[in-house]
Amino acid sequence: MAHSHRKRKIFALVVVLAFLMSTLVLFAAATDSYTVTLAADGETQSVTTRAKAPADILAEANIAGQTGDLIATDAFHPGQDSALTLYRARRVTINESGKKPVIAVIAGTVARALEQGGYTLRAEDIVTPALDTELSEGLVIDITRAFKVTATADGETRSLWLTGGTVESALAALNVEYKKADEVSPALGAKLSKATDITVGRVETKTRVVEEKVPFTSTTRNSNDLYVGEKKVETKGVDGLNKVTYVDRFVDGKQVNTVKEKTVEIKKPVQEVKLVGAMSAAYKPIVLKTGLKPISVLQPSSKLQLDENGIPKNYKSVVEGLAKSYSIGKYGASGGRCVPGTIAVDPKQFPYGTELYIVSTDGKYVYGYAIANDTGGFVKTNSCMVDLYMPSMQACINWGARNVRVYVL
User: Fold this and answer.
1) CATH architecture under which domain 89-144 falls
2) CA distances, 303 to each of 95, 249, 296, 306 (Å)
3) Which of 86, 160, 184, 222 has a C-alpha 20 to 30 A away from that of 309?
């Protein structure tokens, strides 16, 4: 009986040991596997595995990889519960402002597409969609590059990087204040699309009042109370005086322009009047050649009376001088048509419309009744007294340059 009892104890011990061994084997087997959270093709699943390689884990999950796919292992730790993400290769377009679009086949996120494409970003650049967006087939990635904008005011320059906006919004972002009168360049409403230098000129205006002299003007009149060659001041000219208000404009302390705002007359100027002699001295009589016909085709009024020698009986004054001739030009400076009988004068001596009667002092020519309607080029050179319009160039040659007596009618 004792021997049988001992056998039963030994058998029970063996059974217990066998149970313990099997439990240890099962425990060891359980602790050798781990769980991987796998995201692929828009779905997420948990995979219990003892595989260490991401590709093997995908195979266990019956997920086939394709050329260009990306397995993200940032959150994967072999042998530990962790995660894997499979990104499929997608065809995307990258648009960078001002450059030709780039088409690429790549897997991952927007950030990886830009990294693989060699795009370096500033913090101020704008990328859409967001950098962590997973790439999808046909996705368009837009890169808006920031540009540098500077603003200078009061001798200080500030800058920042922008992707758009206006000059006004840029100044606000830079905390640059300005007044309505200040000069801002470019204009406040100008849109920004590239690197731009903005200047703000501080504008100030000052008003001043000064007294200014107004120079007198002068005029000349013919006088029959003076002989030809005599001059006299009838009324002496006197300068006037005005009170003038100016507004001076300064930009950053430098005067840029002045505007006359108001003028008040204090004293009116007095015009100077000069008299020149028109009364002729005693000239010796001219005997005209018999049978002479006037060159002028103009017909005088019936008031003109000639003596038996063909000299006017009634006239205001007489003056003698050199006369040249011309036959070119259809209209005179006064606007009237040029014909034999219209002559070029110094309008200060013979105003336009003055009626004259002209004969040569040698008695060989009678130019006849004439009207002043043109200004002679001799006025600047003082080479003669009058220029007579002739019917032809040959008539001009025949005339040459002759002394004449001019009767002012």
Assistant:
1) Roll (3.10)
2) 97, 66, 17, 10
3) 222
Sign of the C-alpha dihedral, residues 332, 335, 338, 343? negative
Whether 89-144 and 205-277 share one fold: the answer is: no
User: Tens digits of per-residue pLDDT, 167-218?
Assistant: 999 999 999 999 999 999 999 999 999 999 999 999 999 999 999 999 999 9
Give the angle subtended at the CA of 292 by the CAs of 288 and 298, to the nearest 5°: 110
**Distances from the Cα of 123 to the Cα of 99, 115, 161, 196, angstroms:** 20, 15, 9, 19
- Residue ranges in 108-222 assigned as alpha helix (H): 110-116, 167-173
Average pLDDT value over all residues in the chain: 89
**E strand or H helix at 82:** strand 82-87
Give kind and range of the element (H or E) at residue 87.
strand 82-87
Residue 358 burial by CB count (10 A; 0-12/13-18/19+): exposed, middle or buried?
buried
* Helices within 34-141 (DSSP H only): 54-60, 110-116
Strands 386-389, 402-408: parallel, antiparallel or unpaired by DSSP?
A: unpaired
Q: Which of 221, 322, 313, 320 is nearest to 280 (CA)?
A: 320
Which CATH number fits the domain 280-408, given the four candidates 2.40.40.10, 3.40.50.10420, 2.60.300.12, 3.40.50.2000? 2.40.40.10
Indicate the SS3 state at residue 188.
coil
Question: What Rg do the C-alpha atoms of the chain give, in angstroms?
Answer: 56
Q: Please name which of 120, 121, 141, 118 lies closest in space to residue 130, comparing C-alpha atoms.
A: 141
0.70 surpassed by pTM: no
The correct answer on CATH 2.20.230.10 for the domain covering 205-277 is yes
pLDDT in tens, 316-364: 888 999 999 999 989 999 999 999 999 999 999 999 999 999 999 999 9
